[in-house]
Task: structure prediction
Amino acid sequence: MCGIVGYVGGRPALGIVLDGLRRLEYRGYDSAGVAVIGDGELRTLKKAGKLGNLEKALGETAAGDTEAIRTGATAIGHTRWATHGGPTDRNAHPHLSADGRVAVIHNGIIENFAKLRAEIEACGVEFASDTDTECVAHLLAAAWADLDGEPDPGRRLAAAMRRTASRLEGAFTLLAVSTDAPGAVVGARRNSPLVVGRGAGENYLASDVAAFIEHTRDAVELGQDQVVLITPEAIEITDFRGAEAAGKDFHIDWDASAAEKGGYDYFMLKEIAEQPQAMADTLRGRLGETGEILLDEVRLSDQDLRDVDKVFIVACGTAYHAGLVAKYAIEHWTRVPCEVELASEFRYRDPVLDRSTLVVAISQSGETMDTLMALRHAKEQKARVLAICNTNGSTIPRESDAVLYTHGGPEVAVASTKAFITQLVACYLVGLHLAQVRGIKYADEVAAVVHQLRATPAAVETVLDRMEPVRELARDLAASRTVLFIGRHVGYPVALEGALKLKELAYMHAEGFAAGELKHGPIALIDQGCPVVCIVPSPAGRGVLHDKIVSNIQEVRARGARTIVIAEEGDAAVERYADHLIRVPRTPTLLAPLVTAVPLQVLACEIAAARGHDVDQPRNLAKSVTVE
Ligand code: F6R
Result:
């Protein structure tokens, strides 16, 4: 939620910050704003709506103002996903102190904001917005005035930020600039992402490395409760009490082109097309010389994993659906019971956890607050936590006992596609690792499944090559009121995922069901022409499963449904019941979601486009959900 960028250096900062915001707009797009220090003055401009509105307004600003904004070499910028206060010009960030000398941008929620606001108002300050963020600007200005013993303006601003941050409760990333410290940007973080980009004679701050990847691939990860001061020459990190702290340097292994559309109409289409590569990258280097699975960061011993008597998977949205698929594989391969929980519900139902519970937290962003809170709850109960994550250095892997990174590269479209597919790959690897460490599968058995997994990128490539009829079908379905999805076994989570994609992108009523559940109620939804997408398991797997779903297809067809059947090559039994047949290559039963999910992504994307929606930035959503 909310994208944040800061720059200080020798170049005009506005363009750099706007480019960064463009790359972060997936995080929130309710409003956008910038603050630039130029000619010894602080200028801000902010606008409701997408970044384009701000850019248009910048073009229309009075000439003198525009010049100062365009040449200043210190700036911060923000793209917002509204929490406190509606998405209006007035509530857009940056927010200013009463004297107009300090500007602040913020990601997160300040939970004690009502108390702080009352205290500030009692001193006679009038608020210019309905946001929690504005409190920070006023507190910073007051702290600055108090700290006149510090001669260095940048360090004085950092000290003011430490004092202010210590008073805040909740989750926040904050960036601030001040007219009194023109060559500095300060930042603070608690439970919300902030990374530093290290340049030559210039430095950057951002919620995500994508914002500065064009300029530098050297980054510094900040810890919890830290304040950072950047000037053109230096990066100084302290904790909230002022003690010097060290950030963790890392190198970004993808470049700016990975965060561009590369000729596709939407990021989503590009990311769908990147899936075979992302799967192969996630598999690469995972198999050790003796056939063992290699995790990235393991602070768990094999004995810890042998002691596991229960697995919980916690995740949200699409990542939760990946977890539902993982349950089938983990239980089948390890014989250890595995439960899958929505992260937002997990800690509230007081789950039974102890040292021998393994909690697997799945998150593309590594910052989803619901998942983070579930992870922390698990750790408090002494459970071991293993993260599956796509974002290096993010909070969830940092706080976990072990990590398996999905090497999906940046996912910019709000709807998760390659993240989902690579999460599935990682889940399979975790299942195999557990099975092997616990002595249930031998190294050669693990290697055999890895071999099957290695064939799946090519299978996805084949699916992608055959998507033209799906595109045509999508145009045809664009006017439908409801689309239903049914599946059994691992096809059931795929049905849920297909429905989620359609809801979030096309704003249509869509629901996924376990095919066997239809007759217990939902079948009443089916009327003449109602599209039902049926995910059919391999007839080469458990035959009874296949036969049951063929019966379910007949049941819905008998009630007027228009059936869209996803079935593997050579499955002749489904042909006579399919109004539309989408063929996928033969894949082992447990791995089938890797191929069957792909046509559903394309279908949702194309239906949304046909309905004229913004595919990459669907309404009301944000890519990284850092509030509970
Ligand atoms: C849907 C989607 C979301 C995310 C969910 C979890 O397409 O993208 O449902 O899967 O918000 O996000 P992460 O994986 O970042 O924790």
